[in-house]
Amino acid sequence: MSSPTLDRVLDAVFRVDADFCIKFVSDQGRKWLGKAASDPLPVSFLSLLHPDNVAGFKATVQAEPESFTCDLRLVKYPGDCWVNIRGYQLPIVHQYVLCVLDISAWRAGDSAFRHAAEHDDLTGLPNRVLLRKEIENHIQHGPGTFAVALMDLDGFKKVNDTYGHAIGDAVLIETAKRLLKSKNDEDVIARLGGDEFVLLFKSKDAVSAKEAASNVLLAIARPYDTAPHNAYLGVSIGIAEYPAQGDSYSALLKNADTAMYHAKNAGKNRISIFSTSDDSEDFSIKAAIHNGIQEGEFYLEYQPQFDIERNVIGAEALMRWSSRSFGKVAPDKFIPIAEEAGLMPFLGKWALRYACHQLKKFQRAMPDFVMSVNVSPVQFAGEAFDGLVLDAVAETGVNPKTLVLEITESTLMHSQVKTERALASLRERGIRFSIDDFGTGFSSLAYLTRLPVSSIKIDKAFIRAIQYQDRASPADKKLVTAMINLAHSIDLKVVAEGVENEEQFAFLKGSGCNLIQGYLLGRPMSAAAVMGLLQPLRVLDHA
Ligand code: C2E
Ligand code: CA
Ligand code: CA
Q: Which of 39, 96, 431, 481 has its CA 20 to 30 A from that of 344?
């Protein structure tokens, strides 16, 4: 029976007597059982069966002794395995031949086996095998674009080396828990091995995956009390999007890995989206901004403002970030991130103080120079905003009447008693407020008259509509005129921003607009360049 061919196809062939005592086992079978030729074999075949399967096996044989077949579990080092047994009776000798085929790998339907094969022992998370299945399944049946984020802990090796594997394992388990908490129900977290994890975002593109992954940065940034001295870790995250940045499991993982290394190289603890060019979009949230503040990467530029006769009257301070890792980042990009990360009160306070210092310097050249500073709604939510402004004014000794705070309509709309009180107290000291981006929100006359606002700043979208590339919009012109008239009727001054051409300027002048800001008369520039605009005036003054 143990013909060489059969022996090769089957994992084991046994001959057993009527009581299932083993009389013979094939060479291949010995090997499969992990026994050397000299090792003793168990006496009974039944002792190889999983205890749960013994009775069932006997019943099967009894029911059809001539020829039977069944699938059951066998106890075998290093763990149970599933086998298919085909048995044939040898009638004269009252023995059975049992042909055994290991079908563990085929038992996809058995959840216990499948679970073990598809999950990570340490964390219980899906492993590489299941991740691959999920991704391939999603490629076949999914709704289209999705993204994978490959995450590699920063600083894990040090924890592992310093405190040993037991602590290292505890940190990985804790990491798995944090990752599970920071994901959506439909998304999948898997552990690839070591300190590498993958988050599969089933219905996000790379950009929204990046936004969602910022939760992961924050979750990992919390101290780990599983390690001595509350270890601090970080995580570098690389994102690739299907199908644009990989149309298969391996391509996606490879590109996410490249992006992850990019994030590591850029200084770790950040998110990077895969890109074939060098201008890959990456963001470090808290860490990079925090770092940037300490490294002096933030500075202000000043865009001059003019009266309708084109004389400089002041400037708007605009925040700039020249990041060591990312180069120049536009405020429209980093301010929302700073707001979300809770850093805006800090940055805003810095900008305010810095602008006041610079204002003092400008006023040496032009005593009534007016500085406008932007204030984010979140700054009002913080502690005692008015105190902070008054401190900056006191510290620099500038005349509060030369400071204008630009606030958004949303600040006023959601204003609470606290905000209104801060506005009123600052207004009492002479500080003025201007409504930025006027016309884009839901300005109501009610709050314009109720709150201590002194000017509106018409949003650049309306100014552009007056005249842009040979196109003029009469309706928008009427709208701008109406806004100016409305503001004047309640004693508010009007600033136009984004004035780029002479047609716009002429129209605004004709409509009675008070102040002009825009590329036509001056781009945002350094303090030195603003000084350059003021010096000739001084010369004239002295002349
Ligand atoms: P904003 O307050 O509406 O600032 C005006 C923006 O328009 C500036 O963009 C300026 O560079 C741009 N601009 C000026 N003239 C022209 C023009 O003629 N044409 C066009 N197309 N654009 C013009 P920037 O500097 O990128 O600032 C973007 C936004 O970031 C600002 O919009 C403001 O909301 C915010 N921001 C900047 N600095 C600060 C700050 O210190 N604190 C706060 N809270 N927000 C700031
Ligand atoms: Ca502004
Ligand atoms: Ca504006």
A: 431
Q: Measured in angstroms, how far is the CA atom of residue 374 from the centroid of ligand 1?
A: 9
Number of Cβ within 10 Å of residue 502's Cβ equals 10
Give residue 4's pLDDT.
42
Select from 404, 312, 301 the least CA-distant residue to 358: 301
- Angle subtended at Cα 401 by Cα 400 and Cα 404, rounded to the nearest 5 degrees: 85
Alpha-carbon distance of 199 to 237, in angstroms, equals 10
Q: The tokens of 210 are what?
A: 């990046």
Q: Which two tokens stand for residue 154?
A: 């920063």
Domain 4-107 has CATH 3.10.50.40: no
Task: Return d(Cα 101, Cα 277) in angstroms, integer.
Answer: 52
Instruction: Say how far apart CA 245 and CA 255 lie, in whole Å.
Output: 7
Residues ≥6 apart with Cβ < 8 Å to 202: 138, 142, 146, 186, 187, 188
Q: What is the largest CA-CA distance in the chain?
A: 132
Bigger pLDDT: 398 or 226?
Answer: 398
Q: Which CATH architecture has domain 119-276?
A: 2-Layer Sandwich (3.30)
Q: What is the pLDDT of residues 48-59, one digit of tens each?
A: 999 889 999 999
Output the pTM of the full model.
0.55
- Ligand 2 centroid to Cα of residue 470, in Å, is 27
Mean pLDDT of the chain: 87
Q: What separation in Å is there between the alpha carbon of 357 and the centre of ligand 1?
A: 20
**The domain at 295-542 falls in which architecture?**
Alpha-Beta Barrel (3.20)
